[in-house]
Amino acid sequence: MNTPKSTIAVTTNPQQGIVITLETTEIFLATLVSVSILSGVAIRVISKMNTISSSITQIEKALKEQASNTEKIARLDRTLDLHIQEYVNRKDVVQMLMGQLDQKINHKFKRLLFYTRDIQRFLQKGGNFTIREYEENTEEE
Known about the structure:
Layout lengths: L21 H105 L15
């Protein structure tokens, strides 16, 4: 008799695939959450660094402008000092000239006074010449 033989199907190359279990899902989700948190932190750090960089750039521009203004102020200060010194020199020259003119006027007045007195003495010796006191009236009569 022929007895039937039973055969069992055995595969030598079992299919390899991804087996999803609750544990692997938890690990995968935890990794995703961690990556998203790290990317958020990285984005915040990068945005803060960009803000700091733009602030530094603005400060550099302001410092360059301040340096330029400081140079302009120094030039203006030197120019003002030169003008002030020129004014002082001119004032001294004018005062010196005025003093010289005053001395010349006083000298000429004294010489004229002496000449007038000499003429008066000469006229008194020679005749009836009388000296009158003369006062200058500014009021019209």
